Structure to design on (361 residues):
């Protein structure tokens, strides 16, 4: 059998690793920050009806401009967003990829602030974009001064923020994004995959869009919206940005089924998002309980919590797996990340972790 190194693969992909969240059938899957609540049955029925209608015309290509979906997404986002400002793709991963295809690529660079979403450097590699890194401040924050200093030192073509940040849960202040925009003449990309879990009233980078044509804000239906399996990510930006993305997208990239299911789900946004407050409550419970078990939990605005003080993260990861709980070893020293799920899931996780203790035995 041939191995990867036997293939005439691009030199810049040799030695790279694919996205690696383990996939394992477990009872308590708290590893990839999904909404663990199933979608309401009434909404499911409406989605199926929409899919049934879509299948009758599936001999034809879908709407290449996904017009109805963009209208629904604009309505959902609010902030006086127009459909012309919206773009969508198969997950926000594809949004990131199309952004780098259009604005990055060979000879260009993108700056990130690790630890952050592990796919950012992987998609950079896949698109031939040079990956640059800058350090964060204490507790994973990024001050305006830190962002500006990194941009001035490295002059990237794109800057990536993740707000709130995966895997730490840390918010990014709007002042930091504004300052980064001023300091750069490239694209500033804010990955807001977890925005719906932010505290009520916390402003999104969407509020910064007017007058900033190089600012891109991405969102996803995979997290709060409980729609990870459908694969729908989207972006809000100046209409010129969506014109740029049309140059790199594949024609008809959003299938008729993706469009039909997403439109139907968005028409039930309040029901789809009904569990968000509960989930944020479980996150706050994790933030309160983990220190009582001897761990340090990092303040989180997302639906997960990073905690450290674990003697051997991999051993604890495996011991939890033996108890049918899958969480995430994100490769940070002494740390693990857990998704906030239902109250029952959180209880089960906390009880198992209490039994194991920081030693993990
Ligand atoms: N951005 C961040 C910060 C994420 O954590 C994730 C998923 N883990 C994504 C983007 C991608 O999500 P999707 O492609 O499902 O929209």
């Amino acid at each position: 059998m041939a191995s990867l190194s036997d293939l005439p693969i691009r030199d810049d992909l040799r030695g790279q690793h694919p996205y690696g969240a383990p996939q394992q059938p477990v009872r308590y899957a708290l590893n990839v920050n999904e909404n663990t609540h199933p979608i309401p049955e009434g909404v499911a029925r409406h989605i199926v009806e929409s899919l049934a209608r879509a299948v009758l015309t599936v001999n034809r290509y879908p709407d290449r401009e996904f017009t109805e979906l963009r209208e629904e997404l604009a309505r959902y986002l609010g902030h006086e967003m127009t459909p012309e400002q919206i773009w969508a793709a198969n997950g926000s991963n594809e949004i990131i990829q199309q952004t780098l295809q259009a604005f990055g690529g060979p000879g260009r660079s993108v700056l990130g602030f690790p630890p952050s979403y592990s796919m950012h450097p992987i998609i950079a590699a896949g698109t031939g974009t040079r990956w640059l890194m800058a350090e964060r401040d204490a507790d994973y924050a990024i001050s305006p001064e830190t962002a500006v200093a990194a941009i001035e030192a490295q002059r990237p073509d794109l800057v990536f923020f993740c707000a709130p940040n995966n895997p730490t849960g840390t918010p990014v202040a709007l002042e930091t994004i504004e300052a980064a925009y001023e300091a750069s003449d490239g694209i500033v990309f804010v990955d807001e995959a977890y925005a719906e879990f932010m505290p009520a009233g916390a402003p999104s980078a969407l509020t910064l869009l007017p007058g900033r044509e190089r600012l891109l804000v991405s969102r996803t239906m995979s997290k709060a919206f409980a729609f990870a399996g459908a694969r729908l990510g989207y972006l809000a930006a100046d209409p010129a940005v969506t014109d740029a993305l049309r140059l790199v997208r594949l024609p008809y990239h959003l299938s008729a089924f993706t469009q039909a299911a997403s439109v139907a789900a968005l028409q039930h946004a309040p029901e789809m998002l009904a569990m968000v407050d509960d989930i944020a409550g479980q996150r706050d419970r994790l933030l309160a309980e983990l220190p009582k078990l001897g761990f340090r939990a990092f303040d989180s605005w997302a639906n997960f919590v990073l905690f450290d003080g674990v003697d051997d993260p991999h051993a604890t990861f495996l011991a939890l797996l033996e108890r049918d709980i899958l969480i995430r070893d994100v490769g940070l020293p002494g740390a693990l990340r857990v998704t906030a799920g239902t109250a029952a899931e959180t209880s089960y996780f906390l009880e198992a972790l209490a039994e194991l203790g920081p030693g993990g035995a």
